[in-house]
């Protein structure tokens, strides 16, 4: 509209003020930590309109593992968490691991939560077996193959932003070791699919200096949905060595495409992969290399693993995730007190910690 961003913000505020009413739910699903006063805005919504507050937490990595984050991000995230979380009448997480971590953080920080964190089911991701991602139909992997992708069956795949937390450096070391111990022709190409992120300058320089292990490691930067579907469908298996995840969509996406996944055993990843993935300690390069080499060399065993996934994996739809949120909102709805009884007061809001 005329007037630019300020006018647009004004229209948004006017729409909110015109529709908010007592008993409504303010459902916070996105990453609002970047707003410097979001907790204060939510407090206004609670106090002025008597709204209930529901918050979905993906992870609290900046609070638990600040070494993987920008210092300014960590400070801003901490302010957001301490201001917002005590106001949540309904507090949702995307995994049991995130719920545990949030509970521990609150206890350690002296943060008074109104309710315990409640995990909801998370969709498998986008895959041929589940349907669309973000409301779009899943790209079909049988479409014309992108010219920048390696031949199907020739590679192992890892999908994620390339950042320190995702532990690509471990895979670089493992592939160098495989090339030292095996004939080069027997070592599949390792495909990094994702954009280059932060805290990986040294790794990217090492990869360039090593000529990407003479082409045995390939970067497919910023893959489109169709390319990603083809990468999943054409890989031998996937690896996901991350140190910490709130859930682990690349694990469930891999299983959704019927592809075995070898993943880190950290944080929520065993929840994502269940009994159909194989795991290693992301701090133990020897164990990780042994697990990956076994999957490369035991072709029949890996094929049997793939067949088991096809028979047993049960995808979770995003509709089921939405129903989980709605169930939580309904369970958190205030109930009328019986005649003659008063409902206990809600816990008071905790002081902000600095």
Q: How many β-strands, per DSSP?
A: 10
The topology string of helices and strands comes to: HEHEHHEHEEHEHHEHEHEHEHHH
- Please, what is the average pLDDT? 88
> What is the general shape?
elongated
- Give unreliable regions as ranges: 1-6, 129-137, 335-354
Radius of gyration: 23 Å
By helix and strand content, what is the structural category? alpha/beta
Strand order of the largest sheet: 1-2-3-4
- From the N-terminal CA to the C-terminal CA, the straight-line distance is 39 Å
- Estimated share of beta-strand residues: 5-15%
Total number of helices: 14
Main sheet summary = 4 strands, parallel
Description of the molecule:
The chain is an alpha/beta fold and 354 residues long. The chain contains 14 helices and 10 strands. The strands form 3 sheets. Strands 1-2-3-4 form a 4-stranded parallel sheet, with helices on both faces. A 3-stranded parallel sheet has the order 5-6-7, sandwiched between helices.
């Amino acid at each position: 509209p005329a007037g630019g961003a300020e006018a647009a913000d004004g229209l948004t505020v006017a729409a909110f003020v015109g529709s908010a009413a007592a008993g409504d739910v303010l459902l916070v699903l996105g990453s609002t930590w970047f707003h410097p006063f979001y907790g204060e805005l939510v407090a206004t919504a609670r106090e002025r309109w008597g709204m209930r507050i529901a918050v979905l937490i993906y992870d609290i990595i900046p609070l638990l593992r600040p070494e993987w984050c920008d210092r300014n991000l960590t400070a801003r995230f901490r302010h957001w968490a301490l201001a917002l979380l005590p106001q949540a009448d309904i507090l949702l997480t995307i995994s049991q691991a995130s719920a545990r971590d949030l509970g521990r953080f609150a206890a350690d920080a002296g943060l008074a939560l109104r309710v315990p964190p409640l995990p909801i089911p998370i969709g498998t991701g986008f895959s041929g077996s589940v349907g669309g991602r973000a409301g779009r139909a899943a790209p079909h992997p049988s479409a014309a193959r992108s010219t920048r992708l390696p031949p199907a069956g020739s590679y192992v795949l890892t999908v994620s932003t390339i950042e320190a937390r995702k532990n690509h450096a471990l895979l670089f070391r493992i592939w160098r070791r495989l090339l030292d111990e095996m004939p080069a022709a027997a070592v599949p190409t390792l495909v990094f699919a994702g954009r280059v992120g932060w805290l990986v300058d040294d790794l990217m320089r090492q990869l360039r200096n090593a000529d990407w292990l003479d082409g045995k490691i390939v970067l497919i930067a910023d893959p489109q949905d169709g390319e990603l579907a083809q990468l999943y469908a054409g890989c031998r298996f996937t690896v996901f060595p991350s140190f910490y995840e709130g859930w682990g969509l690349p694990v469930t996406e891999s299983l959704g495409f019927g592809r075995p996944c070898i993943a880190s055993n950290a944080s929520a990843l065993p929840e994502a992969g269940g009994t159909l993935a194989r795991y290693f300690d992301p701090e133990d390069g020897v164990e990780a290399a042994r697990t990956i080499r076994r999957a490369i060399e035991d072709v029949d065993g890996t094929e049997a693993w793939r067949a088991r996934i096809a028979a047993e994996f049960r995808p979770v739809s995003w509709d089921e995730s939405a129903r989980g949120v709605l169930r939580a909102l309904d369970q958190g709805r205030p109930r009328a007190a019986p005649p003659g009884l008063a409902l206990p007061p809600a816990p008071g809001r905790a002081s902000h910690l600095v």
